[in-house]
Amino acid sequence: MLASPLSLLAVAAGGAAGSVARYLMLMMIGQWLGSRFPYGTIVVNMLGCTVMGVLSELAVQAWSPSPELRALLMVGVLGGFTTFSSFTLDIGVLVGRDEIGAALAYALASVLLSVLGFFAGLLVVRSLVSVSI
Protein backbone atom coordinates (compact mmCIF):
# COMPACT_ATOMS: atom_id res chain seq x y z
CA MET A 1 0.00 0.00 0.00
CA LEU A 2 1.46 3.35 -1.04
CA ALA A 3 1.33 6.33 1.29
CA SER A 4 -0.84 9.27 0.33
CA PRO A 5 0.91 12.47 -0.76
CA LEU A 6 -0.52 14.20 2.32
CA SER A 7 0.96 11.53 4.61
CA LEU A 8 4.34 11.91 2.91
CA LEU A 9 4.24 15.67 3.43
CA ALA A 10 3.24 15.12 7.05
CA VAL A 11 6.21 12.78 7.62
CA ALA A 12 8.58 15.22 5.91
CA ALA A 13 7.37 18.23 7.91
CA GLY A 14 7.31 16.29 11.16
CA GLY A 15 10.75 14.82 10.49
CA ALA A 16 12.20 18.27 9.95
CA ALA A 17 10.63 19.58 13.15
CA GLY A 18 11.76 16.54 15.15
CA SER A 19 15.31 16.74 13.83
CA VAL A 20 15.59 20.42 14.74
CA ALA A 21 14.16 19.70 18.20
CA ARG A 22 16.69 16.88 18.70
CA TYR A 23 19.58 19.13 17.65
CA LEU A 24 18.48 21.93 19.98
CA MET A 25 17.97 19.52 22.88
CA LEU A 26 21.41 17.93 22.34
CA MET A 27 23.05 21.36 22.27
CA MET A 28 21.22 22.50 25.40
CA ILE A 29 22.01 19.37 27.40
CA GLY A 30 25.61 19.47 26.18
CA GLN A 31 25.93 22.99 27.57
CA TRP A 32 24.44 21.94 30.90
CA LEU A 33 26.20 18.62 31.45
CA GLY A 34 29.14 18.66 29.05
CA SER A 35 29.78 16.55 26.00
CA ARG A 36 32.19 13.88 27.29
CA PHE A 37 29.26 11.46 27.75
CA PRO A 38 26.15 11.28 25.51
CA TYR A 39 23.71 12.56 28.14
CA GLY A 40 21.74 14.40 25.47
CA THR A 41 21.19 11.25 23.44
CA ILE A 42 19.97 9.39 26.51
CA VAL A 43 17.54 12.19 27.37
CA VAL A 44 16.29 12.47 23.78
CA ASN A 45 15.78 8.72 23.50
CA MET A 46 14.00 8.48 26.85
CA LEU A 47 11.79 11.48 26.13
CA GLY A 48 10.96 10.36 22.60
CA CYS A 49 10.12 6.83 23.77
CA THR A 50 7.95 8.18 26.58
CA VAL A 51 5.99 10.35 24.16
CA MET A 52 5.69 7.41 21.71
CA GLY A 53 4.26 5.30 24.52
CA VAL A 54 1.76 8.00 25.44
CA LEU A 55 0.66 8.59 21.83
CA SER A 56 0.43 4.92 20.89
CA GLU A 57 -1.65 4.06 23.97
CA LEU A 58 -3.88 7.10 23.50
CA ALA A 59 -4.42 6.00 19.89
CA VAL A 60 -5.58 2.58 21.14
CA GLN A 61 -7.57 3.69 24.19
CA ALA A 62 -9.09 7.11 23.62
CA TRP A 63 -7.94 8.89 20.47
CA SER A 64 -8.50 8.18 16.80
CA PRO A 65 -5.95 10.28 14.94
CA SER A 66 -6.17 10.45 11.19
CA PRO A 67 -3.50 8.53 9.28
CA GLU A 68 -1.92 11.87 8.35
CA LEU A 69 -1.78 13.09 11.96
CA ARG A 70 -0.36 9.75 13.09
CA ALA A 71 2.26 10.01 10.31
CA LEU A 72 3.09 13.59 11.30
CA LEU A 73 3.53 12.91 15.01
CA MET A 74 4.66 9.31 15.36
CA VAL A 75 6.67 8.76 12.21
CA GLY A 76 7.69 12.34 11.41
CA VAL A 77 8.23 14.29 14.63
CA LEU A 78 9.22 11.38 16.86
CA GLY A 79 11.11 9.62 14.07
CA GLY A 80 13.10 12.80 13.45
CA PHE A 81 13.54 13.39 17.17
CA THR A 82 14.71 9.84 17.86
CA THR A 83 14.49 6.66 15.81
CA PHE A 84 14.76 4.85 19.12
CA SER A 85 11.07 5.66 19.62
CA SER A 86 10.18 3.67 16.49
CA PHE A 87 12.38 0.83 17.71
CA THR A 88 10.57 0.71 21.05
CA LEU A 89 7.16 0.91 19.36
CA ASP A 90 8.08 -2.14 17.26
CA ILE A 91 9.07 -3.99 20.44
CA GLY A 92 5.85 -2.88 22.11
CA VAL A 93 3.77 -4.23 19.22
CA LEU A 94 5.56 -7.60 19.37
CA VAL A 95 5.16 -7.79 23.17
CA GLY A 96 1.50 -6.81 22.81
CA ARG A 97 1.06 -9.81 20.53
CA ASP A 98 2.78 -12.01 23.15
CA GLU A 99 5.70 -12.54 20.78
CA ILE A 100 8.28 -12.10 23.54
CA GLY A 101 10.94 -14.20 21.79
CA ALA A 102 10.53 -12.19 18.61
CA ALA A 103 10.74 -8.94 20.60
CA LEU A 104 13.96 -10.05 22.28
CA ALA A 105 15.42 -11.26 18.99
CA TYR A 106 14.47 -7.98 17.30
CA ALA A 107 16.03 -5.91 20.10
CA LEU A 108 19.23 -7.93 20.14
CA ALA A 109 19.54 -8.07 16.35
CA SER A 110 18.81 -4.35 15.99
CA VAL A 111 21.45 -3.30 18.49
CA LEU A 112 24.10 -5.77 17.35
CA LEU A 113 23.57 -5.25 13.62
CA SER A 114 23.44 -1.47 14.00
CA VAL A 115 26.71 -1.39 15.95
CA LEU A 116 28.32 -3.84 13.50
CA GLY A 117 27.06 -1.73 10.58
CA PHE A 118 28.54 1.39 12.14
CA PHE A 119 31.97 -0.20 12.51
CA ALA A 120 31.75 -1.77 9.04
CA GLY A 121 31.14 1.72 7.64
CA LEU A 122 34.17 3.02 9.52
CA LEU A 123 36.34 0.21 8.14
CA VAL A 124 35.16 0.77 4.56
CA VAL A 125 35.97 4.46 4.66
CA ARG A 126 39.29 3.89 6.41
CA SER A 127 40.32 1.30 3.84
CA LEU A 128 39.29 3.54 0.93
CA VAL A 129 41.02 6.59 2.38
CA SER A 130 44.23 4.70 3.11
CA VAL A 131 44.25 3.26 -0.42
CA SER A 132 43.74 6.65 -2.11
CA ILE A 133 46.46 8.47 -0.16
TrEMBL record:
Major site of localization recorded for this protein: membrane
Regions crossing the membrane: 42-60, 72-94, 100-125
Control of this protein's activity: Na(+) is not transported, but it plays an essential structural role and its presence is essential for fluoride channel function.
Binding positions for Na(+) per the UniProt entry: 79, 82
Alphabetical UniProt keywords: Cell inner membrane, Cell membrane, Ion channel, Ion transport, Membrane, Metal-binding, Sodium, Transmembrane, Transmembrane helix, Transport
InterPro entries: FluC (IPR003691)
Subcellular location(s) per record: Cell membrane
Pfam families per the UniProt record, alphabetical: CRCB (PF02537)
Membrane topology designation: Multi-pass membrane protein
Reactions performed catalytically: fluoride(in) = fluoride(out)
Cited function: Fluoride-specific ion channel. Important for reducing fluoride concentration in the cell, thus reducing its toxicity.
Similarity remark: Belongs to the fluoride channel Fluc/FEX (TC 1.A.43) family.
PANTHER family per UniProt: FLUORIDE EXPORT PROTEIN 1-RELATED
Protein name per its UniProtKB record: Fluoride-specific ion channel FluC
Organism: Azospirillum picis
Classification lineage: Bacteria, Pseudomonadati, Pseudomonadota, Alphaproteobacteria, Rhodospirillales
Gene this chain is encoded by: fluC
